[in-house]
Amino acid sequence: MARPSRFWDWMAKRYSKQPIADEAAYQKKLQVTRDYLRPDMEVLEFGCGTGSTAIAHAPHVKHIQAIDFSSKMIEIAREKAAAGNVTNVTFEQAAIDDFRVPGQTLDAVLGLSVLHLVEDRDAVIAKVHEMLKPGAVFVSSTACLGDMMMFFRVIAPVGRFLGLLPLVRIFRVKELENSLTAAGFAIDHQWQPAKGKAVFIVAKKVA
Ligand SMILES: C[S@@+](CC[C@H](N)C(=O)[O-])C[C@H]1O[C@@H](n2cnc3c(N)ncnc32)[C@H](O)[C@@H]1O
């Protein structure tokens, strides 16, 4: 396992009970994503949390493999899927950093509220690129704290140092765009509900 997930294990129950911060933005992201999905698609979601998004997309694709490095998140996700009789999502405890699937086999990869939490963003983006078929999409929603107030830029490293917060990487929207294009993606759709909010990007693997 690439990173300890104690913080996220501790958060899991609370996270599953929290209302979505911006329901309208969440619904819009689901809808935009859905426009890219097809019933025969094989999808990976990493950092799936308690599984709500994978479960919401499940009726629109063939299969979703949903991974998260927190065992508690995965436990709750499995319970939700069982309660909803969702049978085409496989939840697995795994870190994206160590995760392997055969190259060029996936039709879509989702990484929602997670790219700013991984150790090496460029390595993860390169891995996603390798997993996807040519022309397939990487859907991400990412907090770009480098564009936010100084407050967050100070709090994130201090909180991490004190062991109160998980790893949070600080970068700007422009840096994220550069990472995606340098890896061989073309940005197909980009939306930021408001300044300081997560940036939602659908990036296509250049065929
Ligand atoms: C902010 S939550 C987002 C959960 C979900 N994607 C959502 O949008 O509600 C971040 C999730 O990513 C997971 N995570 C963080 N780093 C990860 C990594 N390197 N590999 C797999 N999961 C990771 C955490 O355990 C947590 O469940």
Characteristic key phrases:
single chain; 207 residues; alpha/beta; Rossmann fold; seven-stranded mixed beta sheet; 7 strands; 23% strand; globular; binds S-adenosylmethionine
Explained architecture:
By secondary structure, this protein is of the alpha/beta class. It has one domain (6-205): Rossmann fold, CATH 3.40.50. The chain has helices at residues 6-17, 23-36, 52-57, 71-83, 121-131, 150-161, 173-183, and strands spanning 42-46, 63-68, 89-93, 106-112, 132-142, 185-191, 199-205. Strands 3-2-1-4-5-7-6 form a seven-stranded mixed beta sheet, with helices on both faces. The longest helix is centred in the N-terminal third of the chain and has 14 residues, at 23-36. The chain starts with 5 loop residues before the first helix and ends with a strand. The model has no long low-confidence stretch (mean pLDDT 92). S-adenosylmethionine (SAM) binds at residues 2-3, 5, 8, 46-49, 53, 67-70, 73, 95-97, 112-114, 117-118.
